[in-house]
Specification:
Helix content is about 40%, strand content about 15%. By secondary structure, the protein is α/β, with parallel strands linked by helices. The chain has a single domain, classed as NAD(P)-binding Rossmann-like Domain (Rossmann fold, 3-Layer(aba) Sandwich), CATH 3.40.50.720. The strands form five sheets. Strands 4-2-1-5-6-7-12 form a seven-stranded parallel β-sheet, sandwiched between helices. The structure holds NADP nicotinamide-adenine-dinucleotide phosphate. The site of NADP nicotinamide-adenine-dinucleotide phosphate (NAP) has 26 residues, from α1 and α4.
Length: about 300
């Protein structure tokens, strides 16, 4: 799909804001909000009630999008561990409501899933590998995938791990690294945790292309490169001319985190690359774009885009 109207749930979230910025030049973007308000140039926003599939169907029909992108979720892994019922409700039950509404309105659905579904004992997980969730966040996201497939078999389910500029109330992983180093603070980054990060804009662009090719089912839309969190921070520091010597190597097994995390979350993106006939992008290119986005005002714009 090259243009039309896209309705994005979780409109005040990190991914939705960057997705909106990436698409607002070509798409009519509507951000569906929950408790916080969003104000972003060239983008509409509208409160969306995900709690009831019937009411949501009516809202979707009124808004008449060509595509719904479901990004809303409870993304704090330790909070999910602490309250599994809430994680299941927000991540799985609301996703099912969105899928039911999309199916009854005959609107194409993109459901955003995660790279967190596996035990992480090896690298390059494929779409048909058997998930082995280690924590409540992963269990709730896996259940969401199952329920979305049942409610809307045409849905496109995208497994990913992304970065981009956040807002004042939601720092992204890359924000945290850049802001810490700019403030001269030492940070410890795991060199025993690996992932395949993609820039949020690249994720949005590739997903719209997949949706345009009427892809459905599960796709890994992740970066081409597998790196450790330590390596990611080092590359970011280099590209942003920040002092890399402030980055210390750490190990997740020494960190004493509340919820268990998979040490390797890397995804194999061959299926998406083959269908799109293109690479999904190298990390240094994404980081270069992130830096350019800052000089063009994206960081500043998003920082102030969300209010309580
Ligand atoms: N961040 C990552 O690196 C990452 C990696 C892999 C996958 N993902 C997936 O990508 C998606 C987007 O992540 P994100 O980091 O952009 O999320 P985020 O910044 O934490 O934003 C979450 C959004 O969900 C909304 N929300 C929370 N509870 C809700 C409820 N009960 N009803 C309706 N909306 C609700 C929030 O609205 P309010 O602020 O108004 O409450 C917010 O807009 C999630 O599905 C996540 O699982 C994220």
């Amino acid at each position: 799909m090259a243009s039309g109207r896209v309705l994005i749930t979780g409109g005040s979230g990190l991914l939705a804001l960057n997705w909106a910025c990436a698409m607002r030049g070509t798409w009519d973007v509507v951000l569906g909000t929950h408790s916080r308000k969003v104000s972003l140039a060239g983008v509409a926003s509208r409160p969306l009630d995900l709690e009831n599939a019937g009411r949501l169907t009516r809202q979707v029909e009124e808004l008449a999008p060509d595509i719904v992108v479901h990004t809303a979720g409870l993304t704090n892994v330790d909070r999910c561990e602490d309250d599994p019922a809430l994680a299941r409700h927000v991540n799985a039950e609301l996703a099912r409501n969105v899928a039911e509404a999309a199916a009854s309105s005959n609107v194409r659905l993109v459901h955003v899933s995660t790279d967190h579904l596996f035990a992480g004992t090896r690298s390059g997980y494929r779409e048909d590998d058997t998930p082995e969730p280690l924590n409540e966040y992963a269990r709730s996201k896996l259940l969401a995938e199952e329920w979305v497939k049942q409610a809307d078999p045409r849905a496109l389910i995208v497994r990913t791990n992304f970065f981009g500029w956040g807002h004042a109330g939601r720092q992204s992983f890359s924000d945290w690294i850049v802001y810490s180093l700019r403030a001269g603070r030492e940070i410890t980054m795991f060199d025993d945790v690996h992932f395949t990060p993609i820039l949020a804009d690249a994720l949005a662009a590739a997903t719209h292309r997949l949706a345009g090719l009427t892809a459905s089912g599960t796709f890994n839309v992740a970066g081409d490169e597998r790196v450790s969190k330590y390596e990611f921070a080092k590359r970011l520091a280099q590209a942003f001319d920040l002092p890399g010597k402030l980055i210390q190597r750490g190990r997740i097994r020494d960190a004493g985190l509340f919820a268990k995390r998979p040490p390797d979350m890397s995804l194999d993106n061959t299926k998406a690359r083959d269908l799109l006939s293109t690479s999904l992008g190298r990390l240094d290119d994404y980081i270069h774009i992130l830096r350019r986005q800052e000089s063009e005002g994206r960081r500043e714009e998003l920082f102030h885009a969300v209010t309580e």
